[in-house]
Protein: Threonylcarbamoyladenosine tRNA methylthiotransferase
Amino acid sequence: MEDIEDLLAGGAGGALPGFRLPLNSVGVNPKRNTSKRSISKQDEVTDSNRDSLAPPSMKIPGAQTIYIKTFGCSHNQSDSEYMAGQLTAFGYGLTEVPEDADLWLINTCTVKSPSQSAMSTLITRGRSGKKPLVIAGCVPQGSRDLKELEGVSVVGVQQIDRVVEIVEETLKGHEVRLLNRKTLPALDLPKVRRNNFIEILPINVGCLGACTYCKTKHARGHLGSYTVDSLVERVRTVISEGVKEIWLSSEDTGAYGRDIGVNLPILLNAIVKELPSDQSTMLRIGMTNPPFILEHLKEIAAVLRHPCVYTFLHVPVQSGSDAVLTAMNREYTSGEFRTVVDTLTELVPGMQIATDIICGFPGETDEDFSQTVGLIKDYKFAQVHISQFYPRPGTPAAKMKKVQSKIVKQRSRELTCVFEAFAPYTGIEGKEERIWITEIATDGVHLVGHTKGYIQVLVSGPESMLGTSAIARITSVGRWSVFGEVIETLSSTNVVTRVREETKPPCTSDASTCETCNCSAESCGEGNSGDACNVSGDISKQDHKTTEGKSKKVEEGKQELASHWGFVDKALVCGVFVSSLTILVLMISIASRVLMRQ
Structure:
């Protein structure tokens, strides 16, 4: 079936975000009974009378219950949350029990074969249960002629703001396809977060790369960035809603803004200015490929040093061999990846970097694989996502000569053993760390907190601690996470005190400026770098040394003190001033009258 797109007059336009179009503006394909057996007139059910035979709940739009299943990345999760928000805004219920749902909405991922196979299994299960199906995400967008998508409704990645229309028509028995690309979905659509304390914020869609193995580019397309102003406004909104972690998400965070004349450091500097000074809301920068951050490493390092930003970055390398990287068309060398890692770990205290490896890419030799193992051993990353090569239909790599399956599996096992032998958290046992608690662990017993380096810490405590920050003592260390005990829950009062101490910059090489640092003047001198000073100012200028005199610091201190006065404080001062002035006027008036009588 050809794609059926918007049928609005003039062929353009659409509904405002969050509003439904008239039903006749949605392209639909009414399902027909194609059976060759003869049907009597009494048995025939047409589209018009099929609705009259449906249960009452199926006839009233918005009265049904929807099951949403999401595969893939955080960007997909954000899309699902937006679709859930729109559906609930129009009265639909949500359930996590598939059997209780009137319709299944499956948001798909096309990165690896296993996730697409899981999608196919779920579609088959839904069909056998006679559940109306809507398939969203990267699979229908990138593989619209897939056999599994026959007879079901599909919605593309840039049409999620029309999910309500698609669900309504599908519940009526129609097949709907909306796959044309259009403007980016609005960021202020209704949203139901899977975790109330975590906002997944897409900053752009698509990418500028052309990796030979990647199917996602077929689905998400070329780079399309949201404006800085729209993203900053979204950050303000979610902070006011009580969000405690903001995850910047995209197919390549580092490429942000290159299509609209800005770049990632500009966006990051604008966002961190909106984050609360008490560090109650933290920012996590999303996955970025090496090519587009190489030229901004110092600026990004300055952002990562900010008290409200996790010192964590996901930078996929995929292979330690330049020959394999060239075959992948990754547009960087293993040496350039090393530059990224070395620079960030040097400039950012406690920096944590995660990476990805693909084992068995077509043409990978034993020497190529040995270089990859050597790279991982050199850095002993705490997180490495290891996967075997899966040929994706329609990609150049799918036509390349494959490495034998048994060799691919052997290499994957070998690299996994190397990685699992690392002990990345040794040495932090007994230390006290500030953590931000946002989740319940999968064991249902512990709460999950993260350090500033985004190290996962499991602690015991009531669910009321979710969304709070605390000081935890690390009690034991495991391979994948650490365990701790909460020794202090941070309130807004003691957080402000701690923040003032924590945000003092490290020592500068100039002893005259040392009174602003976390050190004494005696400790300043040779070997101490001033690159991290002036943290409290514009972080894009953190590498400049402070040269203002003491008088300016005193004045700034007074302004800071005044800025902490609340409304009641100011009202009391004004009241005292007005009262004093009134008494003075009355005394002058009385004195003048006495003198006149004499």
Observations:
- The first helix runs from residue 47 to 53.
- The chain has 17 helices and 20 strands.
- The two ends are 108 Å apart (CA to CA).
- Residues 120 and 148 are 7 Å apart (CA to CA).
